[in-house]
Amino acid sequence: MVLVLCWFLFFTTRTLALSTISPGQSIKDGETLVSASGNFELGFFSPGNSKSRYLGIWYKKASTGTVVWVANREASVSDASGVLSINDKGVLSIMNGTKGIVWSSNTSRNAAEESVAQLLDSGNFVVKDRIDNDPEKVLWQSFDYPCDTFLPGMKIGINFVTGFDRHLSSWKSMEDPAPGIYSFRIDPRGFPQLVLKKGPEILFRAGSWNGVYFTGKSVPKYYTVYRYEFFSNPNEIYYGYKARNSTIFSRYLLDPSGQIQRSIWNERKKDWEVFLTSDADQCLIYAYCGSYASCTTEGSPPCKCLEGFVHRSASTWNLRPVLWIANRNKPITDTSGRLTIDGGGILILLDGRNSSIWSLMVPRKAEAPVEQLLDSGNYVLK
Predict the structure, then answer these.
(1) Beta pairing class for 176-187 and 193-198
(2) 334 dihedral zone (left: phi>0; alpha: psi -120 to 50; beta)
(3) Residue 23 has what DSSP assignment?
(4) What 8-state DSSP symbol labels residue 113?
(5) Cα 320 from Cα 163, distance rounded (Å)
(6) pLDDT digits 0-9 by tens, 42-89
(7) What are the structural domains of the chain?
(8) Which of 44, 206, 270, 299 has the greatest number of C-beta atoms within 10 Å?
């Protein structure tokens, strides 16, 4: 079942015939901005039964009321006195009834001659020069600060020059949009890949990029509907996707329980059609089979040892690495692409997360070494 965070969130609102606000203008609680084609709406809302007020963006044309972004996630307005405004330097701010600033944006770029804040049909809320529509010259944009929803046109990734990290973070609960304990982000170590984390712990990984999609899963459903993009150089790394048809609404949602749902809006059914979840494939669960093992959805059991390794029992995958191989001059053919022995007798172990290389020329000391002659004829110490 799809979690829809905000069904009965809103008080009666007055929609302004605007998608932009300029210095000297404001949006009060009860008023909203609407994007040019009516795809998204921006205003104040209360999630669930909460009385706290937040400035957010939600779908208007599809799935009315489903929130995709929240500005003041960690600092709510206690009543309906909230006001959004923009100053002549292009800085957005939310003030409460006592004129205290609850939240404000920031920008490292010079202010435009005439700054405006505009809600785009993509769901992006941008601060820019009124007469300059170059998307690369915005002063500030909400897409740089994603919450629990990953929309077409957004990027997840890291700028290695500035250290800026764009990632999803779950809500704390259905009634509290503050950042929760789950995050969905790019792990840049070794072969970069998308990972779902609970605090520092990796729960799920999507595999590395093969030039078309992430290898941890099969060719994505609706692949022809979207254009996927993965970019990596010494300065920046990011992943994003765009809809080939702007009338199609799609999203990733990281819910408060830590589940990722990929869905597309079904206009005929008036509902989200979920076509991918993070727990749909057990082999995508990080370290599901333990160390030195591979996982496949086509076999039973799904786990098996890599060549050159044995497991200690049929019920556990607490594997030991091979520390020494007798007939090391005979290369082992490995189809997984992760473990191989070259003709010189060096065992190379590649891990998709950190690309570690482990050489048998420098054996590791085992706590309780065990000698075993394998059926392959290899005499091993493990």
Answers:
(1) antiparallel
(2) beta
(3) T
(4) S
(5) 37
(6) 999 999 999 999 999 999 988 778 999 999 999 999 999 999 999 988
(7) 1-143 (2.90.10.10), 146-286 (2.90.10)
(8) 44
